[in-house]
Specification:
The chain is an alpha+beta fold and 158 residues long. 25% of the residues lie in helices and 31% in strands. A hairpin with a 7-residue loop joins strand 3 (97-100) and strand 4. The longest helix is centred in the N-terminal third of the chain and has 16 residues, at 4-19. The chain is globular.
Length: 158
């Protein structure tokens, strides 16, 4: 009988094979409590910029390092686990919104993406910075939880 961890590992392995990424290495890093091993590279290649991000001038590989995670994503009773972070990473190329930080010379963007988790919509804020050849995730700092059944209930259009 296959357990959920084996299924997840197979999906990650397939994702890495299809995209030439290091998501499996990144997940191992998270499971170790965000601790690097020996001479391990400090950044993880976790994806490639998609069509929408490229329209904003973000091109190349998407990388992430240990400093990208903020403690501000924790809400009382809600916390994203390793599997949830993987969902966030896979959804970076499908953001709900993108905003450019000013002045433009900083080459930084804030995007918001969502994942579904335990009957809730989780909106996650991600800061991206263009580097010479890649896009680096600098911060994953916010997660807003909303019960899916309540979405739209508080909207008052007059």
């Amino acid at each position: 009988m296959t357990n959920i961890n084996e299924i997840l590992q197979d999906k990650i392995r397939l994702y890495d094979q299809e995209n030439g990424t290091e998501l499996a290495r990144f997940v191992a890093f998270l499971e170790r409590g965000k601790v690097y091993e020996g001479n391990e590279a400090r950044f993880f290649h976790i994806g490639k910029t998609g069509e929408l991000l490229q329209k904003y001038g973000m091109k190349g590989d998407i990388t992430i390092g240990r400093s990208a995670f903020s403690q501000r994503h924790t809400v009382v009773g809600h916390q994203l686990d390793d599997n949830d972070w993987i969902k966030v990473i896979k959804n970076i190329n499908n953001p709900l919104a993108i905003a450019e930080y000013l002045p433009k010379k900083e080459k930084s963007f804030r995007l918001y993406t969502t994942i579904a988790l335990e009957g809730n919509v989780v909106c996650v804020g991600v800061t991206l910075k263009k580097t010479k050849n890649n896009v680096e995730i600098c911060n994953i700092g916010t997660a807003f939880w909303r019960d899916i059944r309540k979405i739209g209930n508080n909207i008052n259009i007059s």
